[in-house]
Amino acid sequence: MLIGYARVSTEDQNLDGQLDALKAAGAERVFTDKLSGKNRQRPELAKMLDQLRADDAVVVTKYDRLARTLRDLMEIVEAIREKGGGIRSLGEVIDTTTPAGRLFFHVFGSIVEFERERTVERTKEGLAAARKRGRIGGRPSALSPEARGQVRKLRDDGAKTAEIARMFKVSRSTVLRV
């Protein structure tokens, strides 16, 4: 039996494209999660693994729908293999139900993890270079240094947080952070 698994990282994202591809591939049943891949507590993934039988194949649109790290992916693949099943990825055209597919899976998984680590490394290098040049990322402060001083003085004088927030047209959280 072909069992589909689809995942998106946030509630705002849409599963339709993955669901259409899984149905077209012949998935008889599809489990879906709307959670980040780094979250190992994915209820539908756990339910799918629990209900998996020997000779079932889990089909995904891409391997990154199952896990974000090679280690997690290998653990999930091993759990499926222990139950006598395999994995098919539509995007990478790899099928772990065959010996050659398992080999390609391991090689491909290593390359994917290497590329992810390189991306993280390049991002950190870029942020460090920007900081060195005096640029700090993130959203600009809602209050100037002078305004922050005025907020502190008003708080010290006993003004209520909500009043201060209205005066400076900022949220209460911003006033509390100051």
UniProtKB/TrEMBL annotation:
<dbReference type="Pfam" id="PF00239">
    <property type="entry name" value="Resolvase"/>
</dbReference>
<keyword id="KW-0233">DNA recombination</keyword>
<comment type="similarity">
    <text>Belongs to the site-specific recombinase resolvase family.</text>
</comment>
<dbReference type="InterPro" id="IPR006119">
    <property type="entry name" value="Resolv_N"/>
</dbReference>
<feature type="domain" description="Resolvase/invertase-type recombinase catalytic">
    <location>
        <begin position="1"/>
        <end position="134"/>
    </location>
</feature>
<dbReference type="InterPro" id="IPR009057">
    <property type="entry name" value="Homeodomain-like_sf"/>
</dbReference>
<dbReference type="Pfam" id="PF02796">
    <property type="entry name" value="HTH_7"/>
</dbReference>
<dbReference type="InterPro" id="IPR006118">
    <property type="entry name" value="Recombinase_CS"/>
</dbReference>
<dbReference type="InterPro" id="IPR006120">
    <property type="entry name" value="Resolvase_HTH_dom"/>
</dbReference>
<dbReference type="InterPro" id="IPR050639">
    <property type="entry name" value="SSR_resolvase"/>
</dbReference>
<protein>
    <submittedName>
        <fullName>Recombinase family protein</fullName>
    </submittedName>
</protein>
<keyword id="KW-0229">DNA integration</keyword>
<keyword id="KW-0238">DNA-binding</keyword>
<feature type="active site" description="O-(5'-phospho-DNA)-serine intermediate">
    <location>
        <position position="9"/>
    </location>
</feature>
<dbReference type="InterPro" id="IPR036162">
    <property type="entry name" value="Resolvase-like_N_sf"/>
</dbReference>
